[in-house]
């Protein structure tokens, strides 16, 4: 939708929706606790809980319906910004276990600086987990799914 309605650029968050920033803070804190206790499965689970919160937010706000009303386009932009920002934070949490896929996601979001920085020791993880780090106006690239559906991949002959 960012490509279709905002010319492939991250839109500004004009309308505030507190649900996603709160979910990001909650699940980031949980992921940190789990990571420090070396419960990596729970750490990854916290990141996926954040992604589920994004899914619920999109289902609740229905930007695909709002986009049909030109006067609601700024609200659609805010929904898309906050969704992309929460996905960005979840990707930082997932980067220790899915580094290649998350680096590809960051490139698609125009975050090459983040990809380079997180590859370094003492990368300032707190900065990248903070809400609001997705630059407004950065170019978003479309691409093949990072995680194709299992059935589709299996039917395509990739097997196990």
User: Could you report the average pLDDT, rounded to the nearest whole number?
Assistant: 88
Strand content: under 5%
Structural class: mainly alpha
Sketch the topology as an H/E string, one letter per element. Answer: HHHHHHHHH
What summary fits the major beta sheet? none
Distance between the termini: 32 Å
Give me the number of helical elements. 9
- CATH class identity: Mainly Alpha
Instruction: Say what the CATH topology is.
Output: Isoleucyl-tRNA Synthetase, Domain 1
The CATH homologous superfamily name equals Isoleucyl-tRNA Synthetase, Domain 1
* Cα radius of gyration in angstroms: 16 Å
Strand runs, count: 0
- Give the fraction of residues assigned to helices: 55-70%
Number of domains: 1
- By CATH, the architecture is named Orthogonal Bundle
Which word captures the global form? globular
Low-pLDDT segments: none
Can you walk through the features of this model?
With 160 residues, this protein is an all-alpha fold. It has a single domain, classed as Isoleucyl-tRNA Synthetase, Domain 1, CATH 1.10.730.10. It is built from nine helices and no strands. The protein has helices spanning 2-6, 19-36, 40-61, 63-66, 73-94, 99-108, 112-118, 125-129, 150-158. Helix 2 (19-36) packs parallel to helix 5 (73-94), helix 3 packs antiparallel against helix 5 and helix 5 packs antiparallel against helix 6.
